[in-house]
From TrEMBL:
Organism: Streptomyces massasporeus
Residue spans crossing the bilayer: 34-54, 100-121, 133-155, 167-185, 206-228, 262-285
Similarity section: Belongs to the binding-protein-dependent transport system permease family.
Region: Disordered, residue numbers: 1-27
Keywords: Cell membrane, Membrane, Transmembrane, Transmembrane helix, Transport
Compartment annotation: Cell membrane
Protein name according to UniProt: Carbohydrate ABC transporter permease
InterPro entries cross-referenced by the UniProt entry: MetI-like, MetI-like_sf
C-alpha cells in the first residue's frame, strides 16, 4: 500500500520572514531624476562660457563694458567677423592656418614617436629597458622652465626661429604619452603578435600591421588630447614665432590685449573661431577618447 504525500505549494513551504518586500522601483525613479537634474545643472554651467563668448562677440564695446546687462545684443554686430579677418595689425586668418599645421603635424609626430617608444619598452626584451623607462618617467619631474631656455638656444642656433620646424620638432616627444602607450601595450594580447611572428613578421611588422590596426581607439584618444594641447600651446609659439606671419592663434589672441587698449569684441570673436576646431575634434572623437583612456590600464 502506497501513500501519497500532499503537494506542498512553494508559497506555503517558504517561511515568512515577516518583513514586507521593498519596491525598488520608486528609489530607481528618484535616483534617475536626481541624476538628470544634476546632469542638466552641470550642462547649463558648462554652456555659460560659450554663451558669453558668442554674446560678447556679436556686441559692441559699449554693450560689453556697460552697466546695463542685456541677455543678447539688440543690434547684432555681424561686421565684427569681417573686422576680425581684415585687421592688418593681427593676421588672424594666417594664425589659424599656422595653428592647424602645427597642431596636426605635432599630433602625428607625437603619436609616431611615443607609440614606437612605448611599444619598444613594453615588448622588446632588453636588459636596460626598465632603466630607460625610469629615465622617461624622470623627465616628468623636470619643470618646463628648466629646459625652456636651453631648448630656445638650440632652436635659435639651428636657425629654426619663425619656422614650423622650430614650433613642432622640440615637442615631438612626451614622457607622459610614452608612459600611457607603454601601459596600453603591456595589456595588448601577446597571442596576436606571436601569430604575426609565426608568419615571419618582426617587431616593426607586428607593430605596424597588427598592433596599430587593433589599437585605433587608443590612438584616437591620444590624438585628441595631443591635438588640443598643441592647439592651445602659447608660451613656446610666443617665443619662437616672433614674426607676425608665424603667429599661432593663441599668440594672435594675446595681441588684442596691449598696455594701451583691450579690444573686447575682437577678443571674443577671435576666441569663438579659435575654439571651433577643438569642438569639432572633440565631438568627432569623444567616444574614442573615453574608450582609449579606459584601456590604458595604468598597471605595471
Amino acid at each position: 500500500m502506497t501513500t501519497t504525500m500532499p503537494e506542498v505549494r512553494e508559497s506555503e513551504s517558504a517561511p515568512s520572514s515577516g518583513k514586507p518586500r521593498r519596491d525598488k522601483r520608486g528609489g530607481g525613479v528618484m535616483s534617475s531624476t536626481g541624476l538628470y537634474i544634476a546632469t542638466g545643472i552641470a550642462g547649463f554651467l558648462f554652456l555659460i562660457p560659450f554663451y558669453l563668448i558668442i554674446r560678447n562677440a556679436l556686441s559692441t564695446e559699449a554693450e560689453i563694458t556697460g552697466e546695463n546687462w542685456q541677455f543678447f545684443p539688440t543690434d547684432i554686430q555681424w561686421g565684427n567677423i569681417s573686422e576680425l579677418f581684415t585687421d592688418e595689425t593681427v593676421p588672424y586668418a594666417q594664425s589659424l592656418w599656422n595653428s592647424a599645421i602645427v597642431a596636426t603635424l605635432h599630433t602625428v609626430g607625437v603619436l609616431l614617436v611615443c607609440s614606437l617608444a612605448g611599444y619598444g619598452l613594453a615588448r622588446i626584451p632588453y636588459k636596460h629597458a626598465n632603466k630607460v623607462f625610469y629615465a622617461v618617467l624622470g623627465t616628468l619631474m623636470v619643470p618646463t622652465a628648466v629646459t625652456f631656455v636651453p631648448s630656445f638656444v638650440l632652436v635659435s642656433s639651428l636657425g629654426w626661429v619663425d619656422t614650423y620646424r622650430g614650433l613642432i620638432i622640440p615637442g615631438l616627444f612626451s614622457g607622459f604619452t610614452c608612459f600611457l602607450f607603454r601601459q596600453y601595450f603591456l595589456g595588448f594580447p601577446k597571442e596576436l603578435e606571436e601569430a604575426a611572428r609565426v608568419d615571419g613578421l618582426g617587431y616593426w611588422g607586428a607593430y605596424w600591421r597588427i598592433v596599430v590596426p587593433n589599437s585605433l581607439n587608443f590612438f584616437a584618444a591620444m590624438a585628441t588630447i595631443t591635438f588640443i594641447n598643441g592647439w592651445n600651446s602659447f608660451l613656446w609659439p610666443l617665443v619662437i614665432g616672433q614674426d607676425p606671419g608665424s603667429w599661432t592663434v593663441q599668440v594672435a589672441l594675446s595681441n588684442y590685449m596691449t598696455n594701451q587698449t583691450v579690444v573686447f569684441h575682437l577678443i571674443f570673436m577671435a576666441t569663438a573661431f579659435s575654439i571651433l576646431p577643438l569642438v569639432f575634434v572633440f565631438l568627432f572623437l569623444q567616444r574614442w577618447l573615453v574608450q582609449g583612456i579606459a584601456q590604458t590600464g595604468i598597471k605595471g
